[in-house]
Amino acid sequence: MTPPGLPQPPPTGASAMPAGTYDGRVVIVTGGGTGLGKSIATEFGRLGASVAIVSRDEEHRAAGIASVEEAGGKALGVACDIRDADAIATAFDAVEQGLGPVDALINNAAGNFPVPAEDMSPNAWRTVVDIVLNGTYLCSREYARRLIPARRDGAIVNVGASYAWTGGPGFAHSAAAKAGVKNLVETLSVEWAPYGIRVNGLVPGLMPHEDEVAAIAAVPGKYEGQDERVPAGRVGYPRELAWAATYLCSPYASYISGHSLVVDGANWQRRHTVQPPFTPIREQLGRGPFGEPAPPRGA
Predict the structure, then answer these.
(1) pLDDT digit string, tens, across residues 34-81
(2) Quick check: is 22 catalytic?
(3) Domains in the chain, start-ordered, CATH in brackets?
């Protein structure tokens, strides 16, 4: 008999924090118009925050705004390429002018796709590292440089990945960048604690959503038996990550800094007494031997 696993969470629309926790507060969510970022932005809005959806894509910004407003919050869309320090400064100016001084920053924006390391182009490596690692640092730096002279406290949450600890075959670019993001949590939390700025990480587990990257969604077997792959006996829900984000930025977590909270049903810690047969990453992704022409589409 299969054990029941972990219980289901409260329904959509429930909150982990008291109503009004973020009344009068301003929160930036990078990449807040899709997927997990949109869920995080929506939950902050539900709790009273004014939320800035920072994204390069106009449609994504519109989707984030609509979701926050539907939950009863106020939202502003701001165009920004987080790889550009000047663009980030301009975006923060726009948020301050439109909503007020920023109280919390969620570094969620990322780029990712599966590829064997030997197939990866230099541009692919640079692009993912630039968005994930450099973008997280540049946004954090801009935030701190505004808070420190103003003597204002604040909170940063960096959305990470468990392969920052383990490595991520097929995702060398993202895994390396996320390892750097985890290190930023640990480094910046110490540097900025004297100024009242807390820095934490938030690591999602298997949380299917409608905005998953097409290249990742296309991995063979991606959606088969997902509940059975987790010790919890079920996948996670984006709202569960959002509840954790609102807690980490709240006054109730005022003594938590430098920590990475993993929300994955204990999945990344699991081990087999006898490991299953090893499958090379090229085979997992349905790729032929390196150097051979790729098979035609549909073959």
Answers:
(1) 999 999 999 999 999 999 999 999 999 999 999 999 999 999 999 999
(2) no
(3) 26-269 (3.40.50.720)
